[in-house]
Amino acid sequence: MPSLTARPESERLILGTLLTIVVVRFLLLPLYPILDQSEARYASVAMWMADRGDWVTPTMDGATPFWAKPPLAFWLSAASIRVFGLNEFAVRLPCYLIYLAIIGMTFIIGRDVRGRTFGLLAACAFASMGLAFFLAGTVMTDPGLALGTTLSMIAFWFAMKQPDRRAGYVVFAAFGLSLLAKGPVGILWPACSMAIWCAWNKRLGDLWKRLPIFTGTLLTLAIGLPWYILAERHTPGFLHYFIVGEHFMRFVDPGWTGDLYGAARHKPLGAIWFFAFVATLPWSPVAVWALIRRHIGTRSDWPHFHDPWISFLLAWALVPIVFFTPARNTLISYVLPSMPPLALLTAHLLRRMKWSNYPIVYRLTATGSAALGAAMVAAAFLFPRSDHTPTQLPVVEFCAQHKSRPGQPLYYLFEEPFSAEFYTHGDARHVTDVEATQIFHSGKMKLLVVTQDEMQWLPPSLRNDLTEIGERNGAFIFEPKAARESGKVAKTADRNSAAAATGASQLR
User: Fold this and answer.
1) Considering the entire predicted model, what is its pTM?
2) Is 59 left (phi over 0), alpha (psi -120 to 50) or beta?
3) Structural domain boundaries of the chain?
């Protein structure tokens, strides 16, 4: 087994790589627009929470309850909005801080088990994994879940390592945090991982000796339960939809039609394993290479499953992935809670394979992260005006220049994208074709936006009353022909008045 010590220059190189990654990620936060669909939806929910001051019931439009997720992510982003204002940096900052917290926890447990250099290597691996790097600059609920599960598993490790009731209480406090981040699944996954590890290592009895099961459960309920009670009282029906629908029907029924906030995502069985490989790039090929070396005769690189540390990481990493293996309704973000232990396993493989002795590994990692950051900065400036960028920022900017007065609603035919709601500060509205016709004739609508998907449903009778004045990001902006004609008349009258005034002055 290779030595776990490292030259000081190698440690400095790892630390420099890590700092490069986190600084680049921080600088990118405000440089690209809020993206539809999920990020813009969650950003809008946080915007309304900050605006209305209702910290119990998340809403999508200031009125419609949003039952799909608990409030932790919205609380954090809404608080950030209160401090920094309504902008991309403010709503994304909480996920970035969670990213830093998970990096720090990965370093702490790695340092405790294998030394400072190993901890830095694992932290660097997590920070540079594609999904972790990306989600650190978004508005999502998955980072909050990953924070809770990571904290509970690390506290569990320390509680099992030596009798420490404080670590045991941290486990249950983290359970309460996970309840507020994503729901009961934040308790189920780490609890299963803990039980599997204890069973594998013949330490089931230690669960009762080392963890304050009774008082800890009370702590979990004290942290998480009050909000659930208040949410059900404010909007009856929430608990049934959230527990039965979001946690059961979404999992067992890929064609679930009860989803109030979008269509089910039908994926092949086992798609979560492919997602795990992609999410952990550029490091996932390290595990593949180690597996290949094992089967061609070089077995020393592969982890020993009877090592309590390795079995702990495997139980932690695999439970969420195995949980979603039979599910068809999956997303790549579901891999995030498994990524801290996968980063620690990556560090283990790098040390076993002696790749950590080569500075080129860290230089390539730092260069790759900087290049990814540069590409995102370039995209921020080049592609917000592209039809392929899922954001309504260019549309809102264009319409703001053509509104007759500030604060006038921006109307979308049938459905307004969430990014339009965010960038208009809640002044985006959706209307049917009949409502659009009525509002046009009443003179209350200045502009109408129709996305490419909705153009086929635009009635010819309504289309004949409209004049297209622009196109941005695949959306067409119209104004009433009457408004354009009246505008031309007004401009002509202004020119005639100016000419008359000039003639009068010349006569004088």
Assistant:
1) 0.87
2) beta
3) 8-379, 393-488
